[in-house]
Amino acid sequence: MDKDYGLEKRKFVIAGVAIFIVAVYIVRLFSLQIMSDDYKKNADSNAFLKKIEYPARGVINDRHGTLLVYNHNSYDIMVVMNEEKGRIDTAEFCRSLGITKEYFIKRMAEIKDRNKNPGYSRFTQQLFMSQLSEKEFSIFQEKIYRFPGFYVQRRSIRQYTYPYAAHVLGDVAEVSPSDIEEDSYYQAGDYIGKLGIEKSYEKQLRGEKGVKIQLRDAHGKIQGDYMQGKYDRRPVPGKDLTLGIDIKLQALGERLLEGKIGSIVAIEPSTGEVLCMVSSPTYDPRIMTGRDRGKVHSALAHHPWRPLLNRSIMGQYPPGSTFKTTQGLTFLSEGIITPGTMFPCNHGFYCRGLHVGCHGHASPLNLIPAIGTSCNGFFCWGLYYMLGNRTKYKTVQDAMNTWRDYMVSMGFGYKLGIDLPGEKRGLIPNAQYYDRAYKGSWNGLTVISISIGQGEVNLTPLQIANLGATIANRGYYYIPHVVSKVHGEQIDAKYKERHYTKANQRAYEYIVAGMRRAVTSGTCRAANSAEYEVCGKTGTAQNHGQDHSIFMGFAPMENPKIAISVYVENGGFGADYGVPIGALMMEQYLKGKLSPESEKKATDFQHRRISYGTANR
User: Fold this and answer.
1) Given pLDDT bands bounded at 50, 70 and 90, which one contains residue 313?
2) Can you tell me the distance from the alpha carbon of 119 to that of 494, in angstroms, rounded to the nearest whole number?
3) Whole-number pLDDT of residue 135
4) Fewer Cβ atoms within 10 A, N terminus or C terminus of the chain?
5) Which residues, at least 6 apart from 274, have a Cβ–Cβ distance to it below 8 Å?
6) Residue 330: which of 510, 518, 507, 514 has the closest Cα?
């Protein structure tokens, strides 16, 4: 009898289909039971409640131990979507929290939106509403049993003792989706440092989260701790910080710059610790807390005077005549001049039809009185001879790049590396810069304005203060830093390393003598004190409107305790605002308080206002 091959083939097909179906079921079963944890999560969520316990954020003190930033209790409303499932009385829930039904619907949708909430899981607690006050919490707590799936999470928020140092301290706010993606430590509703020290030292300040596991019955009611807390993990508090900031000095600086745009930076030369960092206009850090932080931040961001901008490290300005100290150091160290070299100044620098003006003073003169009287002519001649010296430098480009190397060694042209976010580098031009600008055809006269801190040169107020610290140390500086101590660990070793400049120490002694001359009989006479020797240098930087008023100095001359820069936009001559403000700041720090006469001066400057118009600055 012949075989029915068609029937035989159908048997194989049917068998193959059956095997395929069985294989699909096996793969799916394996996926559900082994590869996927959905069922495990579901079972766990019914049996356990894992509550994150947040650590206390580290507190922040000033150099004298005065408390600047601390923590205050707050409460967040959390929701587990798998438990809520629309089982609550929405109207009653909204009344308990003082919110609208529309807000409730919108917020629940945002929680489920994985674009806005990348860490979303229906089995874990998600933030519904943050930072309830004690009163709001007590009202809600009485009714929480009516709202299955909702829980209260105790948290802490930042509080600020003083209305000062907002740009230094920074603030804390809820994490963004990008924060969560960058660091698995965070989940929606967590807080993170957004500005200032809070951002730079986030990992030290935040601590480590803990977890508490509790048992629930079939109705979701808490029955107690799982295994008597055997698997709980206690939170580890964040590390406390001590700053180099003197809060009294900071407060005085902010008073003196009221109604003005500018900066004051003071540094301890022997350590590089920042004693104060004032940026004006500023704001009270206490307004950047609570649920209205977003609205406040937006208002500050749109203010025409840009109070969120930390001008001390982000403002890039011409340094004016404070820069002449760097030129004297370079010319002496390179042998372009000697301490006795005399240059003429007949109300300015005249050469080949080019004129750079200067005020009236004795002429000719050498380096020390040139610094004391802030002579433009002397330093223009110095740069002219340096860039034109073909015995020492083969080309003007070689001379220019040598000049640039001196400037970079003094901390200009690049970020200093302060422990605050957002620092700018300023600008120090080199030969390539001018080759591009002038197509290779330029000389010392083309760029002569850089010798007096104008033209293309731009520095930050921090860099100008660091120049003062470097001169005070006679040739080296420490990278300026705000934090002097992280409790429980060492600060970064880079803040303890000396950075030496290319200028020789002998040259610094002449610059110090010139800065002392400026205080005793030159442009900085308003900074003179009978109790300690002040060294200073004024600056008046040309501007499209009124000139900027600048001061850079340090005191005492021997064993200096403070170096300072003052920069007041549109403040006129350096002696108008820069010098008297700098003198008051040095007195406050060195003596611990102002004399009655100085307090009157401080009040006068506090109430002075400079008109800037309405242009966005």
Assistant:
1) very high
2) 37
3) 83
4) N
5) 168, 243, 244, 245, 265, 266, 267, 418, 480, 481, 482
6) 507
